[in-house]
Amino acid sequence: MPRKRSLLVVDDESSVLLTLRMILEKEGYDVITAESCAEALGLLDNGGNFDAVITDLNMEREDIGLEVARAAQQVKPKPVVMIITGFASMDNSRAALELGVDYMAHKPMETAVLLSALHRLLAKRRDSGERV
């Protein structure tokens, strides 16, 4: 039996975390949640081994999700990094692109769109020989 892919989902809204956790677990993922940038950084720094990190952009302060993305980029092997935001701008979109974020979605978004992007990105990593 293949191992479940593990995801770190970061958002300061507990209802969003609960909803995403239920959706992603139904899809067969092992989901760990964090309600702040600091909590997410702690999980990433303490050996958190995730296939993907999905983070909100604006939590404790504007654009702090970029710090989560930056920390995730330093983890080896590197997880897929996705940002979800209701407050995209040219500046934070450019910063996400420069960080190498794999996907940036805008709220509200359809669950099917998020799942499709996640499945595609994880399959791309698998097919390229990177970590899955």
Describe this structure in words.
- The chain is α/β, with parallel strands linked by helices and 132 residues long.
- The protein has a single domain (6-127), classed as 3-Layer(aba) Sandwich (Rossmann fold).
- The protein has 5 helices and 5 strands.
- The chain has a 5-stranded parallel β-sheet with strand order 2-1-3-4-5, sandwiched between helices.
- Helix 2 runs parallel beside helix 3 (65-74).
- The longest helix is centred in the C-terminal third of the chain and has 17 residues, at 111-127.
- It is globular and about 40 Å long.
- The two termini are 14 Å apart.
CATH superfamily: Response regulator
Strand content: 15-25%
CATH class: Alpha Beta
From N to C, what is the helix and strand string?
EHEHEHEHEH
